[in-house]
Design a protein that fits this description.
The structure holds two protein chains of two kinds. By secondary structure, chain A is an alpha/beta fold. Helix content of chain A is 35%, strand content 26%. Classes of the chains: A alpha/beta, B alpha/beta.
Chain lengths: 253, 215
């Protein structure tokens, strides 16, 4: 049986590991390399590494550093940040990334998603969607690390991304990000019902019960989390045990 | 062989075919970590430098075969395996490329080193999602040196939408329970394939690569 994945998220800003709240108020929480080494030693299911300043700074990913990080990483790694063309994807895969997450550029160039999926296969392309409620109280997709409104509702955008060929959706609730108040289960359920590709729930994990809730009630295929692992004693291995006790299929290690 | 295993691997060259389609970095690191010397190359003439070949790959089948054809690898690989007795290990897309034909996108001929076809995974229940992404069991159908020391039912890391259907059941080493079940390890003589990523499958995956280097 396919296992539900627990995925630590590493947010990376100018060589430092950071964590914010609602995509803001970034705190430094260490360096990226030691974290990757620890997660690798602990044999986590998968890692997500997001360069949160690449798009803002209008630059390409830092391939050299990514390659050095990947040298220490024997678990599957998804990289996101500054992915703007096919050549960038090729260089990321050569640097050792297994999957590539695309967010901002998908909105301006949807055909790029189709091209990338056709070239590297759907399974390699992860669409990252950042969502918050707009002034009218409806869920809306935001680009540029949560800064720019797109006017798109996440359900129809997810369906469009699936049609364009992405293999997974990394769905982040901006409001829940860093809050540790629990995932936006309702949003996750809306998206996991709308598409037939896997949905990774992200934003809001504060304890293992939150993970169980978004898996059981939100239809998430995987749970991504950062603050819970940076700021509390809770660990991916304990999360796995808790989920297993509650009947969720997780990896045996 | 076991006594001076690391010594033997140190002098062992492993050719990694770089046809522009993959996360070659991860495979290279595992080979190095196991003590052998990876030779990553785009040039078919390098085939003479090694007896063990790894065909990695992430991507679409038609693009993969197009690249292998364009760069002259197809005939070189077939000759190396079928006439010169070298061995090859295809990983993920690399395993699918070993097949006779694929129906990904449109009908495309493969390397035809193991008879079989590549077809899309088909969901057999409403909650079955495709691509198949994540950790799932490999269930052995028979013994093989490739899986020595790996426990029945070990979870390995998959990320794919298509699967290899071998022409003969005897080529099946392992299957995985998803969309019913599909073949996750194949072998025909010196040709091996794994649908999962052994280079990303923790200790079991490293053991499988080590086993391949020892065979």
């Amino acid at each position: 049986m396919l296992k539900v994945r627990i995925i630590p998220t590493l947010l990376w800003k100018t060589l430092n590991l950071v964590k914010g709240q609602a995509f803001d108020s970034w705190r430094q929480v260490g360096s990226v390399m030691p974290s990757i080494k620890v997660y690798n030693a602990r044999d986590v299911d998968e890692l997500v590494l997001l360069d949160v300043s690449a798009t803002d700074e209008k630059r390409e990913p830092d391939y050299l550093t990514i390659s050095e990080l990947c040298d220490e990483c024997f678990v599957p790694l998804t990289y996101g940040g500054g992915v703007t063309n096919i050549e960038v994807i090729r260089k990321l895969l050569l640097s050792g990334a297994d999957k590539v997450a695309i967010n901002t550029f998908a909105y301006s160039e949807p055909e790029f998603i189709r091209e990338a999926s056709a070239r590297y296969g759907s399974q390699c392309i992860v669409a990252s969607i950042d969502v918050k409620r707009n002034d009218a109280g409806n869920h809306e997709c935001f680009s540029h690390c949560g800064k720019k409104s797109t006017g798109l509702d996440p359900i129809s955008w997810s369906k469009r991304l699936e049609e364009l060929g992405v293999g997974e959706i990394l769905l982040t609730s901006i409001e829940r990000d860093g809050s540790m108040l629990g995932y936006d289960t309702e949003l996750t359920k809306d998206i996991s019902t709308a598409v037939s590709i896997p949905v990774i729930a992200s934003g809001g994990a504060g304890n293992y019960e939150h993970m169980l809730d978004v898996i059981q009630n939100g239809g998430a295929s995987a749970v991504a989390a950062a603050s819970i692992f940076h700021f509390t004693e809770q660990t991916p291995a304990e999360a796995r045990d808790y989920l297993a006790e509650n009947g969720i299929p997780v990896r045996k290690t | 062989m076991i006594e001076n295993f690391f010594g033997i691997l140190k002098e062992m060259n492993v050719l990694i075919v770089d046809y522009g389609m993959g996360n070659i970095g991860s495979v290279r690191r595992v080979i190095e970590e196991r003590g052998a010397t990876p030779i990553i190359t785009q040039y078919p003439e390098d085939i003479k430098k090694a007896n063990k070949i790894i065909l990695p790959g992430v991507g679409a089948f038609p693009d993969g075969m197009f690249s292998l054809n364009k760069t002259g690898w197809v005939d070189v690989l077939r000759k190396a395996i079928l006439e010169d007795g070298k061995s090859i290990f295809g990983i993920c897309l690399g395993m699918q490329l070993l097949a006779t034909v694929s129906y990904e996108g449109h009908k495309t001929s493969g390397l035809d080193l193991i008879g079989g076809v590549v077809e899309p995974l088909k969901a057999n229940a409403p909650d079955v999602r495709i691509p198949h992404v994540g950790w799932n069991e490999i269930e052995f159908h028979r013994n093989d040196p490739l899986i020595e020391g790996v426990a029945q039912g070990t979870d390995c890391y998959f990320v794919h939408s298509y699967h290899f259907i071998p022409k003969e059941d005897e080529y099946i080493v392992a299957t995985t329970p998803y969309c019913g079940q599909f073949v996750s390890i194949v072998r025909k003589e010196s040709v091996y394939g794994a649908q999962f990523h052994p280079e990303k499958s923790s200790k079991a995956g490293l053991r499988i690569i080590e086993n391949y280097l020892k065979i």
